[in-house]
């Protein structure tokens, strides 16, 4: 029975590991999509109605949010979280106290708060959790980037959602808009609200703790 449970756990781990690159690609595509929708729904419209200065202010703040989101996401994906296998075995053994445990899989000591991740296949220092959306563990070395990614993502999603909702309707109703009186393009409207929905849900996910 225990062997059966173990093989199921291994199967789930393998399947989850195989899907991780697609989750990461999904996040990058979502960021690109929301940025494009923001440019179309907000920046171009603010430029047409309020002028270049207003549009430039929105653009600078939007780009600042985007740079921070991309930088911290890239680091959260690519930075090693703090594997014990990257540390010198003798240094670990010398530092070992009675509180430390031993990982039979890595054949190395486990300091307090260190856990073996079955997805990474290694022990991670101060392991928080394994995030499928970064295809990486959140541990001692990359916790800061993961936290800042979720923080900037929440700010970015809230900003794009609110400004898109404020400005999208004006495209078709405001007499000074470039699209005043124009019929709504269903594909464009779906694309817009898909982006807003995605930004809103990403903000919710980020607020709830990353995944
Ligand atoms: Zn281990
Ligand atoms: Zn992991």
UniProtKB/TrEMBL annotation:
Looking at the UniProt record for this protein, which Gene Ontology cellular component terms does it annotate, in alphabetical order?
A: membrane
Q: Where is the signal peptide?
A: none
Instruction: Show the stretches that span the lipid bilayer.
Output: 25-48, 55-74, 146-167
Provide the E.C. number(s) assigned to this enzyme: 2.3.1.225
Q: Which UniProt keywords apply?
A: Acyltransferase, Membrane, Transferase, Transmembrane, Transmembrane helix
MF terms (GO), sorted A to Z = protein-cysteine S-palmitoyltransferase activity
Major site of localization recorded for this protein? membrane
Q: Which residues form the Palmitoyltransferase DHHC domain?
A: 98-168
Q: Which reaction does it catalyse?
A: L-cysteinyl-[protein] + hexadecanoyl-CoA = S-hexadecanoyl-L-cysteinyl-[protein] + CoA
- Record flagged with keyword Protein biosynthesis: no
As for subcellular location, the record says: Membrane
Membrane-topology descriptor: Multi-pass membrane protein
Q: Could you tell me which InterPro entries the record lists for this protein?
A: Palmitoyltrfase_DHHC (IPR001594), PFA4/ZDH16/20/ERF2-like (IPR039859)
**What note about domains is in the entry?**
The DHHC domain is required for palmitoyltransferase activity.
- Give the similarity note: Belongs to the DHHC palmitoyltransferase family.
Protein name per UniProt: S-acyltransferase
Record organism: Tetradesmus obliquus (Green alga)
Its organism's taxonomic lineage begins at: Eukaryota, Viridiplantae, Chlorophyta, core chlorophytes, Chlorophyceae
């Amino acid at each position: 029975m225990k062997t059966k449970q173990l093989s199921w756990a291994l199967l789930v781990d393998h399947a989850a590991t195989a899907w991780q690159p697609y989750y990461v690609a999904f996040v990058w595509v979502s960021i690109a999509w929301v940025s494009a929708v923001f440019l179309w729904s907000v920046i171009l419209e603010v430029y047409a109605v309020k002028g270049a200065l207003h549009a430039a202010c929105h653009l600078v703040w939007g780009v600042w949010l985007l740079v921070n989101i991309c930088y911290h996401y890239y680091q959260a994906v690519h930075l090693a979280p703090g594997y014990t296998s990257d540390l010198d075995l003798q240094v670990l053994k010398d530092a070992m106290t009675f509180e430390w445990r031993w990982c039979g899989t890595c054949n190395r000591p486990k300091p307090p708060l260190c856990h073996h991740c079955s997805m990474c296949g290694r022990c991670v220092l101060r392991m928080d959790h394994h995030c499928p959306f970064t295809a990486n563990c959140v541990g001692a070395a990359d916790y800061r980037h993961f936290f800042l990614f979720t923080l900037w993502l929440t700010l970015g999603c809230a900003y794009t959602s609110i400004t898109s909702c404020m400005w999208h309707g004006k495209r078709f109703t405001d007499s000074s808009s470039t699209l005043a009186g124009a019929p709504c393009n269903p594909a464009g409207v779906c694309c817009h609200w898909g982006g807003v929905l995605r930004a809103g849900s990403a903000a919710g996910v980020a607020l709830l703790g990353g995944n």
